[in-house]
Design brief:
The chain has about 240 residues and is an all-alpha fold. It contains 8 helices and no strands. The protein has one domain: MetI-like (MetI-like fold).
Length: about 240
Amino acid sequence: MTQRLANILISAFPDMLAAGFKITIPLTVLSFLFGMILALLLAIVQVANIKVLKQISQIYIWFFRGTPLLVQLFIIYFGLPSVGIVLPAFPAAVIAFGMNVAAYNAEAVRAAILAVPVGQTEAAYLIGLTYPRLMVRIVLPQAFPIAFPSLFNNLISLLKDTSLASCITIVEVMATAKQIIGWTYESLALYIEAAIIYLMFSTVLTWIQGLLEKRLGWEAKEDRPKERVKTRAEG
């Protein structure tokens, strides 16, 4: 490694790391929160078996799981202006990433809800609980620990997917690396450095996931349902 390359990498690292904290992490968190709200609605609609809404929910999940995230991002940012809907880059990315992750989270939540014993639902109806109260007070608190590993895996995948935001002018980690490459021409080394930053963030999230899973009792695997939910990382 030449002295010049070492200096470039040393000076580029703080810039890319700062872009990660200022843009990548907020983009990930906001997109995931938006996606979770949608996912809960999609999952509850399917479990409630409301015919028309259930079909709409299934079509939504089919579309967003069956098409590339980059295409979805381009449709929202570059396509919607043709029908008069113009969104700034950051909100467009939040909407695109959120709608995409919602399709995967919805399936994880739906499977977790179905894993809650039916007897508890029947008992809740017998004591007069309405469907919304049943979901909030009984079903969702039990379903969340079951769905947690799949949901957190989707969060980690989403963190890495935010690199696509550089395609719509958002200056996050990848876009910062591209800018530095533009005047240094050290593409290999700088892309590897960007990968290391994403790896750092993913490793921290994986560590947090392990701690939270222990608190939720996931070490007792024999008490968990056998059904395995497909995550975003597995496509």
